[in-house]
Amino acid sequence: MNILLKTEKISKTFPGSNVIANSGIDFELKENEIHSIAGENGSGKSTLMHILSGLLPQDSGTIRYRGEAVTFHSPHDALKKGIGMVHQQPGIVPGFSILDNIIIGKEGKCFQKIDRKKAINEIESINRQFGIEIDISRNPISPESRQLTILISLIYRKAEVIIFDEPTASLSDAESQDFFGIMKKLKDNGKTIIFITHKIETALSAADRISVLSKGKIKGTFDTDKTDIDSIADLIIGSSSGSVHGIRSGKRNSVGDIKVFEARDIVPGKSSNDKKGFNFAVREGEILSFTGIREKNLDIMEDLLSGFIQVQSGSFFYMGKEIKISSTRTLRKSGIKYIPSDRMGRGTSLTGTVENNLAFTDIDSFSENGFIRKERIRDFFNSGRDSFDIKAIFGQPLWQLSGGNIQKVILFREMHKAKKLLIFCEPSWNLDFQSREMIYKTILELRNRGTSIIMISTDIEEIIDLSDRAAVMHEGKIAGFLEGNEINSYNIGRLILGMAASR
Amino acid sequence: MHPQKKSSIKWPDILSPLITPAAAFISLVLIITAVSSNPLNTLYIFLTSPISNNFYLGNMLNYAGLLIISASGISLVFKAGMFNLGGEGQIYSGVFTATAVSIALSSYSPFLAIAGAITAGSLTGAAMGTVSGYLKMKWNTNDLITSFLLSAAVIHIVNYLITGPMGDPASYLITTREIPQALRLKQFLPPSKLNISFIAAIIIAVIYYIYLYRTASGLKLRTSGKSRLFAIYSGVRTEYFVTIPFLVSGLLNGLTGSFASLGTYYMCAYNCTGGVGWSAIAVSLIGRNHPLLIIPAALFISWMESGLSGIVLYSGFPFELSPILQAFVFFFITAKFFKKEGYGDRRHF
Amino acid sequence: MKKYFFYLIIFAAVYFTGCSAKTDSSGQAGEEPAGKGSASSSEAVSGKINIAVFIPGVTAGSPTYEMLVSGVQQAADENRETEVLVIEAGFNQGEWENKLTALAGTKNYKYIITSNPAMPEICSRVSKIYPEQKFIVLDGYLKGNNNIYTFLYNSYEQAYLIGVMGALVTGSDMKGADRNLKVGLIAGQEYPMMNNVIKPGFEKGLKSVNSAIEMDFRIVGNWYDASKGAELAGQMYNSGIDVILAIAGGAGQGVLSAAKDKGKYVLWFDNNGYSLSDGQVAGCSAIRQDKAAYEITKKAVSGTLPFGSADIAGVKEGYVYFVDDDPAFIKIVPEELRAKIKETEEMISKGAVKLEMPHF
Predict the structure, then answer these.
(1) Identity of the residue in B172, B267, B271 whose CB atom sits nearest the CB atom of C118
(2) Quick one: which of A194, A250, C4, C251 is 20 to 30 A from A350 by CA?
(3) What CATH number should be reported for the domain whose range is A245-336+420-503?
């Protein structure tokens, strides 16, 4: 196969930062291949793809498309050459249907109307060709539908190279399967694919070749059938890592009898009639996790616990005393820490500075008489930077940080002073291998020190690895509780599907 | 290792607030050169008349002071993520109320009467602001619409009162009675109207800046405006930061009106505010990235208005030039002249 | 990039062609290089006299102001060393004093001429700050200030005349007239001259023809809102009024359009308004503001104007009259009525009807 896209010594440093995001990268993409890009957070994967897709200009270096040097001033330019990107958080127009989202921008000259019928036919034939099953008259709300909207949009605009950034990060297992099916069809129809991922297993099984990025440089490119997980992991970390499948939570030290947090007959507001309420409790030094399909299960549980959904009936108890969780404020005042699954929206202020993101949730303790004491914030920032290895500069706006570093900011902030209870949603979301290990270690440390953790996650691996007890949700109810050895993929799978577990 | 310096100042940060005034200024210059038969002279007058004597200078500063007070309030509401479009009516009600109250209290000591008038005027503005703020908080009604409509209604009410029951029958102007001499704010620089309100304006602007960027409450307000979810998540009572900024903004507008009444007009004539509420919005928009920019922005607008009056006086230009200036300023303000790299504001929340 | 270039060309084209006529909008030269601001003396150079015409409002659309400007200009043209500048002060009445102060502060104009009943008071206040400035106020009254000369028209007579005309119209068989015997008066605002002189004068004129006639008096609230004027007039016409006297500045346009809509009549004040509309204006009671402005300016320039005094002039003196020679008037109004109004005018002139200005 010939080389479709090639970069020569691409470099980029973000203004205001000393970290070199891309350093002299020589990358080659062969026509009609599926190429995956792997690497730890902050290694420069997204940056490189943003440059290839025209979103960012490189500081130096050349991009060659079919041998000819090209310059992109915008994603529009790149798309004209046939390169398009589906981002992690795909930008769609809320309120518009999938169809409208696709045909937006394709209006002809002034006063020329879009031929909707023609567009619909074309789109439907695209969907058939690539095995995409979706109703284009609906609004894209779920992550999967947003992703597909952008994908169809790119194909509609005759993209030849399609770049995916963490395509399965927000998808359930079933949806991920569908996705890979579509990706295969894309390849069968002559398209070329790049996808960025953390999940090395996935990369090896779905891609033809894999490139490993680390600290802004390409460490190596391999055919996937000629390498294995451990070698790739080695390349990323630089040292032998041991099993990628994480750490078993180890012997649980004795759990106290005190119920740190309890829910009795909790019925979420605005839910339909005869639901029996949720009943569960977490004891001291225990990790209780919730898992299941995100929609209508875990998101409701998360919003109930954080006050974004009000309780219709039933009560919560914290350390034996009843608390009304009317908003996240209640949690804050009680000292309960909360890491939301919506990291970017709820969990941070992207336009704010790094240090303010660290300090704001507890800003009163960084102030005196109402005036903010910047030294205290600076100290906190320094300790976070050192202990969690956050790559950032004081005063830098948060959006400039890589996804993984933003994660670390949130995690440090909430885990640093966790006392009795931490509510942790999707712990390993968007974390690379190394960071994930670190987080798991920290979770266990907290637990061993007596902090209880309510974990809400769709990642079955970590549920298995970390939970002391697991509550599996199905159709908006708790299907069942699992303890100790009962926590395995078989039982979890059955409960999620609505069948009984085997004990 | 990890260098500890603040993110360096980039050109767009400094220049973009300057672009709007510059563009508006250039447009005016173009108009002047196009229409005037002696452009250089006209331009000279335009640029220098505001400082050419005490009268012009003092009035220019006085007007700038009024703009500063109002713009501080409007900027506060912006930072909280909303828009107070009702400045004109809030200020006008302040002028009227302060005039009426000062006349009513004229038999008491001047200090009491003036204090009473200022308080009353500020309260009417505060009341108007609170309505918009409360409605927004309770039912998420659009603040642009409520503030504007309420203001428009109040303007008509005040106009009715002036042309009718509260009008001065002895005057040939459409106005209320005049404020007694003893209650008028002392002129620092006669014959201009410069008075203590200018000092008050500077103090208010500085206090505003300190509040917004140095206090925890200010940070909470900004966060509620820019990243509302994050603010809720952090335990901030965001409802407070919806109603209260509007209340404060209304109050500051009422205060502006009170100062205008006691210090500049000494009466409340029909539509005497003449667009100061809109100019204040323009000022706060120019200074949108940074509150302290309000002071130079106000001086700029006031200078331009004064310069325009100057050329109207000297060259017989049509007096409509003043609204045209306003139009240019508003027009250019909405343009963003530098491509942004990421998400809006770069250094602050 | 190409886009910007394209827009730039369009802009340049419009700019350079559209702005070929480089004049100031108020027409006259008056741009004094005395732009240095403050104390440049007035006629330091060889007897040159600068006159400023201060318009409280806007010249266009306001007959009194237009006549003022043309009268002053005419006088100035006859004297080579007199220059005139017209300043419009806009509709914000709160600003008038400010602008007048600024104007006087230039110390550039030997005489400031203006016209408006509100101006004598304002001028006297500014006069305290700039005691050397001389003011001339038409259509106003103030006696005893040595820096101010005022000239007032006998609006009582003026209103009486038009009142008579109104009564004649409403009682007639003219096309739009009905038999309701109701006549309207729309004013921009209430002010002493209106309340104490014009309104009563108008009513007296109405009742002198037929004592059963009723007068309906309404206010627009300002001097420029034509749509409000139209709305008000529309209501009045609907309520049985067939002729309205409009004294409302720019808002009068609205009264005219309402009259056109409903096929009714309008009476005009201060100048010849017949041509403003298409058969709606049935009478005009005017002042010779241009004649007065001309004569007064000439007197001022020659140094014979009696500052400190206040003159009043009416029909006999030739400054108040009924406009009856306009072809439009002749066409609309029947011979009989025209003769009657002419007779009334003569009676006033001879002194047969005594109409002294009431206290205001």
Answers:
(1) B172
(2) A194
(3) 3.40.50.300
